[in-house]
Request: fold
Amino acid sequence: MNGVHDALVRWALQNSRLRGLLCAFYDLGTITCGIGALVALSILAWTTARLLLDTVSAPEHATPPLSMHNLAKRGMATNDRTTDASSGFDVRPIIPGVTVPISHLPLMLMAVLIGQIVHELGHAAASALEQVHMTAAGLSIMVIFPSAFVTLPSAAIDALSPRGRLRIISGGPFHNLCYYVALVTVRWCGVLTALAPIVAALLGYENISVRGEVVVDVDPNSHLHAYIPRGALITRFDDFTLNYTGAWSDFFEGTYARPEALGWCVSQAVISAAPDTCCEATLAGFPSPLACFVEGLSGADACLDPVPLLGDPIMPRCGTVALCGDNEVCALPSRVASLVRVWFQLRNEEKEEIVIWNGERDEIREAVQTSIWLPEYWLLPLGLPGAMTALFQYLELATLSLFLFNLLPLPMLDGEQYAHGVLDLVLGQGSPYDEFDVEALESAEAGEAPADGRTWSSERSVKRLKARIQKVTTRVTTSLLVACLVLGTLQGVT
Reply:
């Protein structure tokens, strides 16, 4: 790597015009990083204030009654235990195993490593323009966390003008920002969408969007985990068939053409004898093995067991009472019931099975992870296409986070050196040897001003001012970061 960097230094010396253009490019990076530093500090302050406000002023709520997500499958008992996971918290820290699946940890580490490599290449490229030779570069790993590094001689960097130092310091974060813009542009232009079928076919995956969606994983904390296996093909929700790309999203967002509502033929005697207490709005969410149905002709409410009706695929359907037999009425699920029939097929089987979900339909989307790509061979993992999509998302998130986080004025980060360079550029760099400048001391004792028009005491005052500004900025930023991490982690976990 050192040889490559040395060659880049020589190339920069031999191509002065191109070097000038690149210097202008990194000057733009210096300005951009200044804006980024202000944005990073603003986001940190706003997030900390929001977390603190939520923690201090959050009203006390009584513990709500447990909501019942009744699940039923033909030949299986109904599960009557549930957990209610909801959060109104806006800021969600990315914690593998808590806020994101633990399986995403390798993807996150890979994305961060790639972002760090891009970051260090920025420092290396900018230093070559300033004829600062790199002393070392490489990769390291601490426990399970990989990282990249580039080592530059500090004496050579300190000898540069503030503008040159700022180019090198801001080169890393600026490369992260350019990388982020490139990733977003590729996504917005539809390049990934166009390449996905080609890459999937080469890897051995088949697009099954005209047949349904394959189940990649089910949340272990969801009741659906016990009923819908991985690898199953979900084909329908109620009477809506998943036979085109985007049908899954259309169902949950309600943007599809709804088919005619059909009910089930039920004996008039059963309807008359059935209670109607479960149809009361005040009882919505309370555990009950019954569901609310509406009699199609009179509109009367009745609480019925949904399993014999919705769980039988050959049960006669009806739109009006005329389609039912004598002494039968057409019963349709009420909106209060929130019933969803999930139709699915096991792999290599044609028979469809039905799971009856009693609850909010959005909870199905949150619990069940699906894909339109089915592996043609059993050795291929179900989650590979989804992992590639998640990796691209983490690449965007990681490189943008590195851009903003590295610009915070904290020790061991680029932000501290950037702030020092900006202060030198605005207030003057001075000389590190002014305190021991004999001529300056003699001039001060004789009451004479130095040749540059500044007194020795003014040089010391400027240095003290810069040190004070950096000290205050670092302490404030550190306090905000610690408070943000503590509050965010506590709220993210709870």
